[in-house]
Amino acid sequence: MSVGKRIPLNIKKLGINGEGIGYYKRNIVFVPGAITGEEVYIELTKVARGYSEGKIIKVQKRSKHRTTPPCPVYDECGGCQLQHMKYDMQLKAKRDIVAQSLAKYVKDGAKKIDLRPTIGMDDPWNYRNKSAFQARQSGDKVLAGLYAENSHKLLDIEDCAVQHPMTAKMTTKVKRIMQELQIPAYNEKTNRGTVRTIVVRTGVNTGETQIVFVTTKKNFDQKDELVERVKALDSKIVSIVQNVKEDSSPLIFGDQTIVLAGKETIREKLGEYAFDLSARAFFQLNPTQTVHLYNQIKKAAKLTGKESIVDAYCGVGTIGLWLSKGAKEIRGMDIIPESIVDAKKNAKKYGVENATYVQGTAEHWLEEWRLDGYVPDVVTVDPPRTGLDDSFIETMLVIRPERIVYTSCNPSTLAKDLAQLMELYQVEYIQPVDMFPQTAHVESVTLLTLKK
């Protein structure tokens, strides 16, 4: 096995990142863009200890599930991994990705888990309500887009098949205004320039749009003119915000946020609720599927009106509100201050008097409340891709709520966490939900009940 070598390969299954997996002389080979059942001729691009990677030179036996990706930069971008696959097959593949993770980390117990078919979308395109495109200077031109996969080449994206049309259109217009006003985008090589990232979030169900400029400094030339021209782009732009990020960390936002025009927040509707979202507040990127996801969380919580619920990693309180009518009490926490402010506002707006929101980690507050004699009946968690902290899992195993409803965006960390929680909990079922069509990402709702 050596880089540049060309070999035939039969694709046996899909990996967790959506790549095809085959075996050559007992060596595992990962091939992006390949589909289970295909015979492909590939060139090895990477050879490492225990595995290799390759790119397709020719598909010799084509899967009936293969289709032509509509995105012109699909092969370069890496933002989507499954556009080459028909949608019904994508849904089956995502369930299989969860199954593979369970088999790896839960092992024998995986076979006993009720893993249900993936809930998909009627229209799996143009669903993302937020874009965060890196802005970079190339001569006199301002570029904005995403980095090509496994490289530092920025793809200047004018349109995107999975982004809401408003986010792509506004980003394109904003970068042209920057160019005309000679406001420089950031240049990583020289560490100069003003605008690092252009963030656009639109309310899919309200039309309200917010534009955020993440900048290297607070004050810069033509700032007022930039704001006036952006305001004039569209009446749906109700919020223009600046976020100052002076350090070089990989995080998008810095700590200082300034409202330049309009409101601090935009509004989005989910079902009967409308939520106010500030620039840094977390909110689901696919509102259409979020309704299905939250209904699955509500179904798993099995509320009778008598339960006390803790909504860990609560964000702006969306899950708590969704569950509030069926619960005796809701307590939520998040480490982002703005999220807690928004959560309190949202609860007050809807007259939800049984909800309390505090800033801090879930494990800190759960332990504080336990010492005060409070143990919730249901804990609902929606952690980041890194999954649950070990300290949080340890806390669950100490306080022992009757039910845990675990919403996951990463099958690997879900399976690892379940392996620990299954010491005291029974996994009743896992319901995958396709929040991100055309990508390999899959969310799921898992119901765990305390073993008797």
Label this structure with key terms:
OB fold (Dihydrolipoamide Acetyltransferase, E2P); 10 helices; 4 iron, 4 sulfur cluster binding; Rossmann fold; alpha/beta; 452 residues; SAM-dependent_MTases_sf; metal-binding; 31% strand; 3 domains; 7-stranded mixed sheet; methyltransferase; 25% helix
What's the short version?
The chain has 452 residues and is an alpha/beta fold. The chain is built from ten helices and 21 strands. The strands form four sheets. A seven-stranded mixed sheet has the order 8-7-6-9-10-11-12, covered by helices on one side. A seven-stranded mixed sheet has the order 17-16-15-18-19-21-20, sandwiched between helices. It has a five-stranded mixed barrel with strand order 1-2-3-5-4.
Structure notes:
- The chain is of the alpha/beta class.
- The chain has 3 domains: 61 residues, OB fold (Dihydrolipoamide Acetyltransferase, E2P); 189 residues, Vaccinia Virus protein VP39 (Rossmann fold), CATH 3.40.50; 141 residues, OB fold (Dihydrolipoamide Acetyltransferase, E2P), CATH 2.40.50.
- The protein has 10 helices and 21 strands.
- A 7-stranded mixed sheet has the order 8-7-6-9-10-11-12, covered by helices on one side. Strands 17-16-15-18-19-21-20 form a 7-stranded mixed sheet, sandwiched between helices. It has a 5-stranded mixed beta barrel with strand order 1-2-3-5-4.
- A hairpin with a 6-residue loop joins strand 9 and strand 10.
- Helix 2 runs parallel beside helix 10 and helix 8 packs parallel to helix 9.
- It starts with 5 loop residues before the first strand and ends with a strand.
- The model has no long low-confidence stretch (mean pLDDT 94).
